[in-house]
Amino acid sequence: MSNDSVEERLTLLERQMRRLEKVTGSETRWWERISGAFKDDLIYAEAMKLAHDERQADRGEESTK
Known about the structure:
- The protein has helices at residues 6-24, 30-34, 42-59.
- By secondary structure, it is mainly alpha-helical.
- It has one domain.
- The longest helix is centred in the N-terminal third of the chain and has 19 residues, at 6-24.
- The mean pLDDT is 85.
């Protein structure tokens, strides 16, 4: 491990992140860009229902319809 202080390492990391954000154009939060992408998608809705039912079954609960 480096002898650099945590503060120095954090400052470097933040600087690198800002550089990456500029290069990739990802200054906005990724989920804001894709929000609503699956709206009214029946296959996605079914996949989410199946995943929910599976989680409920793992907990020993019955699915709420």
